[in-house]
Design goal:
The protein is of the alpha/beta class. A seven-stranded parallel β-sheet has the order 3-2-1-4-5-6-7, sandwiched between helices. The protein has one domain: Rossmann fold (3-Layer(aba) Sandwich). The longest helix has 29 residues, at about 105-135. β1, α2 and β2 form a beta-alpha-beta unit. It has helices at about 5, 25-35, 45-55, 70-80, 105-135, 155-175, 195-200, 205-210, 220-230, 250-255; strands at about 15-20, 40, 60, 85-90, 140-145, 180-185, 245. The chain is globular. Bound molecules: nicotinamide-adenine-dinucleotide (NAD).
């Protein structure tokens, strides 16, 4: 059997990926298609979404996860026009580009970050899960961040992502008896367009990000997608309510910097 055929584990499955027009969501969409799934990208960037959909054989339905009525309409439309949704990955999110003090972060910016990252994720989960629960099956991955697991100078983004982790655990207990699993992936530093822009603008130092992880490098978006495919699949049928860091061991190694950093190879 060829590797390609072995990998077609999601034949006849329908997957929705929010934020699928870029970065982590785009990799997830591509990996799901490679495994045979029908993938619907729901992103507010309609142009990029269409480009990705055309290139990787997905369907694009523009969606702003900040708009509750639109989420409900899109989830109902997909169920009616495309079919029953088996998988949801919520990758739509916005970062806080500069570490502002509480005095300097405006409440409008705080609201926008919490609105898209936390409220938007909640609304996507509840709107797609209502159909999954009726059918008695489904699997959801929320994308949080290691910034939701350790404090950092991001007073809106960190708490919003911590909320995503907690929310997914709560929803996993709520929907477990309805056959719906809910898990979270908390990425470390992933080289995606949004992070690359921050590096290019001098707002992040790639060598510091690489150095602070155990493996000493950035995460590739495909490495998040592979973890997501595992958690969505039947191979993870007993796993629900977990938060899986995919971070090159950033959480394990970051405290070592208090003591001069991790030992380099050969020392
Ligand atoms: P990205 O900017 O490359 O992709 C995010 C996508 O979400 C974009 O296509 C954007 O158009 C879409 N989006 C933004 N707001 C939206 C909205 N209101 N409605 C619908 N779509 C919207 O970013 P990324 O790095 O791929 O990040 C994806 C997710 O992973 C985010 O939730 C982010 O917080 C999280 N994350 C990223 C990193 C990293 O290092 N890149 C680390 C930890 C967590």
């Amino acid at each position: 059997m060829t590797k390609e055929i072995e990998n077609v584990t999601f034949l006849n499955k329908i997957a929705v990926v929010t934020g699928g027009a870029s970065g982590i969501g785009k990799s997830c969409a591509r990996r799901l298609v490679e495994r045979g799934a029908t993938v619907v990208i729901c992103d507010r960037d309609a142009e990029s979404s269409m480009e990705v959909a055309t290139k990787h054989c997905c369907i694009s339905i523009p969606l702003d996860v900040g708009d509750p009525a639109a989420i409900e309409a899109v989830s109902d439309r997909i169920e009616t026009e495309i079919g029953p949704v088996d998988f949801l990955i919520t990758s739509a999110g916005i970062i806080q580009s500069t570490p502002e003090s509480p005095e300097n972060i405006g409440i409008e910016e705080w609201d926008a970050i919490v609105d898209i990252n936390l409220r938007g994720t909640y609304l996507c989960c509840t709107n797609f899960a209502k159909h999954m629960c009726k059918r008695g099956s489904g699997s959801i991955i929320t994308i949080a961040s290691v910034m939701g697991m350790r404090s950092g100078p991001f007073h809106a983004y960190g708490p919003a992502k911590a909320g995503v982790v907690h929310m997914a655990k709560t929803l996993s207990a709520e929907w477990g008896r309805s056959g719906v699993r809910v898990n979270t992936i908390s990425p470390g530093y992933v080289l995606t367009p949004v992070l690359q822009s921050a590096i290019d603008a001098g707002l992040r130092d790639i060598s510091v990000m690489e150095e602070s992880s155990a493996l000493g490098r950035m995460v590739d978006p495909d490495e998040i997608a592979e973890a997501a495919c595992f958690l969505l699949s039947d191979a993870a049928s007993a796993i629900t309510g977990i938060n899986l860091p995919v971070d090159n061991g950033w959480l394990s190694a970051v405290n070592w910097h208090t003591y001069g950093g991790v030992r380099q190879t050969g020392r």
